[in-house]
Write a structure and sequence with these properties.
InterPro entries: HK97-gp10_tail. By secondary structure, the chain is mainly alpha-helical. 60% of the residues lie in helices and 8% in strands. It has 6 helices and 4 strands. The strands form 2 sheets. The chain has a two-stranded antiparallel sheet. The chain has a two-stranded antiparallel ribbon with strand order 3-4. The longest helix is centred in the N-terminal third of the chain and has 40 residues. The chain is rod-shaped. The two termini are 40 Å apart.
Length: 156
C-alpha cells in the first residue's frame, strides 16, 4: 500500500494563471500588433519602391487626414500603420493598405502613353512589396510569438 505524500501545486497554479492570461486577451492584442507590424513593413517597402516625381504618389501611401493636412503634420509608415484599424473576420485579421492617388494604379500596372502609340510598363511596387512581406511573414510572426510567450511565462 502506498504512503500519503505532499504535493506542492503552487507552480502548477502559477502556470495555469499564465495560460489563462494568454487565452484571455493577450492573443487578440498579439494578432493586431502582428498585423500592424506587417503593414508597416509593407508600407516601408512600397514607399521606397514608389517613384518620387513630385512626391504626390509616394506621400499617398501615408495619406494625411484633413486635420493633419491643416496642421502640416504627416505620419511615417510605422506611425501610419499603427493608426490603421484592424478588422477581424473569423480567424482573419485584415488591414487595408491603399494609395488614394488617382493615377496610382497606372503606375503600378502600366498604361498607354499620352499619344496612345506606346505602353509604359508598370512598376509593380505594391505587388513586389506584398510578395516580399508574405515571404518574410512566417519568420516575423514566429519571432513575435516567441517574444509574447517569453513575456507571458517569464514575467510575473
Amino acid at each position: 500500500m502506498g504512503r500519503g505524500g505532499r504535493v506542492d501545486l503552487r507552480q502548477l497554479k502559477a502556470f495555469e494563471r499564465k495560460l489563462a492570461k494568454l487565452a484571455s486577451g493577450d492573443f487578440e492584442r498579439f494578432c493586431e500588433a502582428a498585423a500592424k507590424e506587417l503593414a508597416a513593413r509593407l508600407l516601408g517597402k512600397v514607399i521606397r519602391r514608389t517613384p518620387v516625381d513630385d512626391g504626390t504618389l509616394r506621400r499617398g501611401w501615408t495619406a494625411k487626414t484633413h486635420a493633419e493636412a491643416e496642421s502640416g503634420s504627416s505620419k511615417n509608415a510605422k506611425e501610419y500603420a499603427e493608426s490603421l484599424g484592424v478588422q477581424k473576420q473569423g480567424n482573419v485579421y485584415e488591414l487595408t493598405v491603399i494609395n488614394p492617388v488617382e493615377y496610382a494604379q497606372y503606375v503600378e500596372f502600366g498604361h498607354r502613353t499620352r499619344n496612345h502609340q506606346g505602353w509604359k510598363n508598370g512598376l509593380f511596387m505594391m505587388t513586389i512589396s506584398a510578395d516580399e512581406v508574405e515571404q518574410q511573414a512566417p519568420v516575423i510572426l514566429e519571432r513575435k510569438l516567441f517574444e509574447m510567450l517569453r513575456e507571458s511565462f517569464d514575467g510575473d
